[in-house]
Amino acid sequence: MSQKPRVVIIGGGFAGLSAAQNLRRAEVEITLIDRRNYHLFQPLLYQVATGGLSPANIAAPLRAILRSQKNCTVVFSEVQQIDPVQKLVHTSEKTYPYDFLIVAVGATNNYFGHPEWEKFAPGLKTVEEATEIRRRVLTAFEIAEKIDDPTLRQKYLTFVVVGGGPTGVEMAGAISELARYTLRKDFRHFDPSKARVILVEGGPRLLSMFPEKLSARAEKDLASLGVEVWTHARVLEIHDEYVLVNRNDSPIRIDSHTTIWAAGVKASPLSEILAQATSTPTDRAGRITVAPDLSLPNFPNIYAIGDMALILQDGKPVPGLAPAALQAGKYVARAIQAQLKGRKMLEPFRYFDKGSMATIGRNRAVGVSGPFRFTGRLAWLAWLFIHLVYLIHFSNRVLVLLQWFWNYLTRNRSARLITHSPTDAKTFERNPDKTSATRSSPISQMSTTGL
């Protein structure tokens, strides 16, 4: 009996999982390798970061998802090297031969040449980052409850979100709602609604991929929640105690202990490994260039899809969105099956853009689909429905729907857990006065003004 063709898929995100599931009836042996044992619904990570959902609500074990797919084996490991000549994938424990390779490892945060900012401003790409942001946000309120100095308290109650794309807009709105509504009766010594949320965007407007009217509506909705929107504002420095921003050619210091990064992404480090091994060019964000059929130019049996791939359509990059990743995974599965039958995909990959949406808060959202524009409650309800549909497991959909319903009725966010004690809190407990003195240099005690 001859061995079935071997398909190795690296990455269990939207693209990789879509490819695996669309090969379920193919006469192939699939090995899906991921360094995490679960599929994560990244668009809802901001709700984990603000206590609206728990990580288990938006993630599902890969083995459970693919349990009934007999031609697929899940491997919990991290890929270290790829040999395109010998057709081998090397992990830390084992080497896997392949006939077809699909690399779909996604993207990570892009700090644009300032990796030192990461420890002060975590991004929002993983469960670990989301729970760390949740810890920092909630801890800031807890410390503010114990501080008598109003100036120092305000530093802990100032939250800076960098990046005016959908993630930044959603994050800023969620933090403001958390402070204004969810926590409004939880503290005794200060008013949480006095928290200051600043959204910093380097461009002229928020949500640059949306029509200008929708961008303006999003900014108006954020303002109604008390969010300060700073456009034409470029981050110069990020530190534990402050952020330095150049706004309209004037440097401004924002005293804050909580900064969240939502300003950009770059391809996963494995993209660079694959590019070097195959001599394939990448763009400035590290995305690997692919042919119209999503294969690598010199290796028709290797495909790169998802956020790590530079897919050009009508001269423009296909956006790094879940629908694009799902469509790419389905296309590659068809391309492999065509090759198995001795044919080649004649038509290039075409992304069908169903539209884009961003939620600002309760009953506030913006959306665009073709010639149609949506705002307000209608857009918000559409956003809820679409995100429920894209959740991978039925159980996740039920849990999220119930949680959202309860949150809507009560404005409560039940996953407001601080899962480990931060250093700041421990230091403050020992000596509040010393904390104020050692963590605040003379300049850091200035209010937010132009320098």
Strand and helix layout:
Elements: E1 6-10, H1 14-22, E2 29-34, E3 38-40, H2 45-49, E4 59-61, H3 62-65, E5 72-76, E6 79-83, E7 88-91, E8 95-97, E9 100-103, E10 107-109, H4 127-145, H5 150-156, E11 158-162, H6 166-182, E12 196-200, H7 212-224, E13 227-230, E14 233-238, E15 242-247, E16 250-255, E17 258-261, E18 265-267, H8 269-278, E19 288-289, E20 295-296, E21 299-304, E22 309-310, E23 312-313, E24 316-317, H9 322-340, E25 356-361, E26 364-369, E27 372-375, H10 376-390, H11 394-410, H12 423-430, H13 432-439
Helix pairs in contact: 1-9, 4-5, 12-13
Question: Which characteristics define this entry?
Answer:
451 residues, alpha/beta, FAD/NAD(P)-binding domain, six-stranded mixed β-sheet, 13 helices, 25% strand, disordered C terminus
What does this structure look like?
With 451 residues, the protein is α/β, with parallel strands linked by helices. The protein folds into 2 domains: 6-109 and 265-340, FAD/NAD(P)-binding domain (3-Layer(bba) Sandwich), CATH 3.50.50; 115-263 and 357-386 and 418-445, FAD/NAD(P)-binding domain, CATH 3.50.50. It has 13 helices and 27 strands. The protein has helices spanning 14-22, 45-49, 62-65, 127-145, 150-156, 166-182, 212-224, 269-278, 322-340, 376-390, 394-410, 423-430, 432-439; strands at residues 6-10, 29-34, 38-40, 59-61, 72-76, 79-83, 88-91, 95-97, 100-103, 107-109, 158-162, 196-200, 227-230, 233-238, 242-247, 250-255, 258-261, 265-267, 288-289, 295-296, 299-304, 309-310, 312-313, 316-317, 356-361, 364-369, 372-375. The protein has a 6-stranded mixed beta sheet, with helices on one face. The protein has a 4-stranded parallel beta sheet with strand order 13-12-11-17. Strands 6-7-8 form a 3-stranded antiparallel beta sheet. Helix 7 (212-224) links the parallel strand 12 and strand 13 (227-230). Helix 1 packs parallel to helix 9 (322-340), helix 4 (127-145) packs antiparallel against helix 5 (150-156) and helix 12 (423-430) packs across helix 13 (432-439). The longest helix is centred in the first third of the chain and has 19 residues, at 127-145. The protein starts with 5 loop residues before the first strand and ends in a 12-residue tail after the last helix.
